[in-house]
Specification:
The protein is an alpha/beta fold. The protein folds into three domains: 2-48, no CATH class; 64-149, Met-10+ protein-like domains (GMP Synthetase, Chain A, domain 3, 2-Layer Sandwich); 169-343, 3-Layer(aba) Sandwich (Rossmann fold). The protein is 33% helix and 26% strand. The protein has eleven helices and 15 strands. It has helices spanning 2-11, 38-48, 64-76, 79-82, 108-118, 175-182, 200-208, 221-233, 247-255, 270-280, 300-313; strands at residues 22-24, 27-29, 90-92, 95-98, 124-128, 141-146, 151-156, 159-164, 190-193, 213-218, 240-244, 261-264, 286-295, 318-331, 334-343.
């Protein structure tokens, strides 16, 4: 059952590619990027039967993908260049997205070939040739291998997302964060996804909790078009309501005081939009899933304290913090912090 289990784990983006698998007399131990959520455990149980997790010690460096990437690059590069190739790449649908280290631009084709060899399902390799910027959070890419356009279909937790990576923001590394939040949605919750994009939070929440209503807001016309399509193809149109426009205007005109839960996946502007998120929450309060960027030297408690002070400034009270953690590194000294805060 190992291969079947591995296919499912990889589809859910759960395998930790930096660590080696461990064989024992009882079977195969697979290193995971985080503890299994209830939904992930349920999906695995359906595929391979009862799944058991445990703590374990794993050696570094024998994942098939990273080994193939490294092996290909080692045969092509020499000297200092061989010591600093890209260690991993993102996969969105059938598109690989790689970062080319400074000074290695001339080896972009070699790196692209290695990525395609590591994952035979990839048809197109893009190079991150610009920063994420602008109100739509889009990034400039350069095609370095493969064929076809930048539109693809990405699968995650039994959901399908149609998107164009050159026109919308989508981060596959946040899959575990999306399932963590979606599993908290309760029956009869009203959820407002303030920066919905193509719908990965909204659609998943609608899939998992069929008695909740999710209002999904986005200002990017391309993202909104894909959001409507994804709501339809994932069969959640009866409970996920796409809204086009600026959430500040929609918040005042349509969403004010109606939410039990607000998702704020715009870490670069989260503090600026916090007053609107608090207006969208009902008078009895609710939960905000808040994201912010911080320096690695700034501990998560400091970010939490800043958030608490900002909430108090809006004449609302913090009931509790149920989650506060740096969930990913975005630059050598920058991290993204996720905070769940209950507000009265």
């Amino acid at each position: 059952m190992a291969e079947k289990g591995l296919r499912t784990l990889r589809k859910l983006a759960l395998v930790d590619g930096q660590l080696r698998f461990l064989r024992t007399e009882h079977g195969l131990l697979v290193p995971l990027v985080h503890s299994l959520s209830n939904t992930e455990a349920s999906l695995l149980n359906k595929e391979i039967g009862v799944v058991e997790t445990q703590l374990g010690l794993f050696a570094r460096g024998n994942d098939r993908r990273s080994q193939s990437l490294s092996a290909t690059l080692e045969s092509e590069l020499t000297g200092d260049l061989a010591a600093r190739p890209p260690r991993s790449f993102d996969v969105i649908g059938d598109i690989a997205i790689v970062e080319i280290p400074v000074g290695m631009e001339q080896f972009s084709t070699v790196i692209a070939r290695a990525a395609m060899k590591a994952n035979p399902h990839i048809r197109l390799v893009l190079w991150k040739s610009g920063q994420t910027e602008g109100p739509f959070r889009v990034r400039k890419y350069t095609i370095i291998a493969g064929e076809g356009g930048t539109e693809t279909v990405h699968q995650e937790f039994s959901c399908r997302y149609h998107l164009d990576v050159s026109k919308v923001y989508f981060n596959p590394r946040l899959s575990h964060e999306r399932i963590r939040v979606a599993e908290q949605v309760k029956p009869d919750d009203v959820v407002v996804d303030m920066f919905a994009g193509v719908g990965p939070y909204s659609v998943l929440a609608g899939k998992l909790q069929q008695m909740a209503y999710v209002y999904s807001v986005d200002l990017n016309p391309s993202a909104f078009a894909y959001l409507k399509e994804n709501v339809f193809i994932n069969r959640v149109a009866d409970r996920v309501i796409p809204l086009f426009g600026d959430v500040k205007e929609l918040g005042r005109a349509r969403l004010k005081g109606m939410a039990d839960r607000v998702i704020m996946n715009l870490p670069s502007e989260s503090f600026a939009y916090l007053p609107m998120a608090l207006q969208i929450l009902g008078s009895d309060g609710g939960v905000i899933h808040f994201y912010a960027f911080a320096s690695r030297s700034e501990n998560t408690e400091a970010v939490r304290n800043r958030l608490k002070a900002a909430i108090l400034e809006q004449n609302r009270a913090v009931k509790s913090f149920s989650f506060c953690k740096a969930i990913r590194e975005i630059a050598p000294n920058r991290v993204q912090v996720a905070i769940d805060v209950a507000v009265n």
